[in-house]
Amino acid sequence: MSIQESGTARPAGRPRSEKAEKAIVEATLDLIGEGMGVSELTIEAIASRAGVGKTTIYRRWSNKEDLVVDALSTLKAPLPPLSGTSVRDDLIALVDAMRRSTARPAAVA
Is the whole model's pTM more than 0.70, yes or no? Predict the structure, then answer.
């Protein structure tokens, strides 16, 4: 490990690519938006769509549920508080919030 001039240790390895992370999140949202359910969603499908390897995804998220929650949190609508009792219940709450937020503009128009 080398030491930088400031005296702090430099992290080993290549820095994470923000471009790859954005592509992964967008691929996840695209697949969900195309009607793929979370149970059908695979890391392989996300990696293929994003143009990255599966290891790139697993370095950032330990499982697809964490990735889906992070991807959904990037959406503009304010997220409801999540109970944390089950991934299923949390995802239902997030999808309901998304559904309500997309219905509002149509009701106003």
Answer: no
- In angstroms, the CA 58 to CA 61 distance is 5
The reported pLDDT for the residue numbered 106 is: 44
Specify whether the CB–CB gap between 82 and 90 falls below 8 A.
yes
Residue type, 15: P
- Average pLDDT along the chain, 109 residues, taken 10 residues at a time: 56 77 96 92 97 95 94 78 86 83 52
Q: Which residue's entry shows tokens 């954005």? A: 22
Are the CB atoms for 37 and 61 separated by under 8 Å? no
The values of phi and psi at residue 55, to 5°, are: -65, -30
| Closest C-alpha to 57, from 49, 65, 67 | 67
φ/ψ of residue 9, rounded to 5: -75, 135
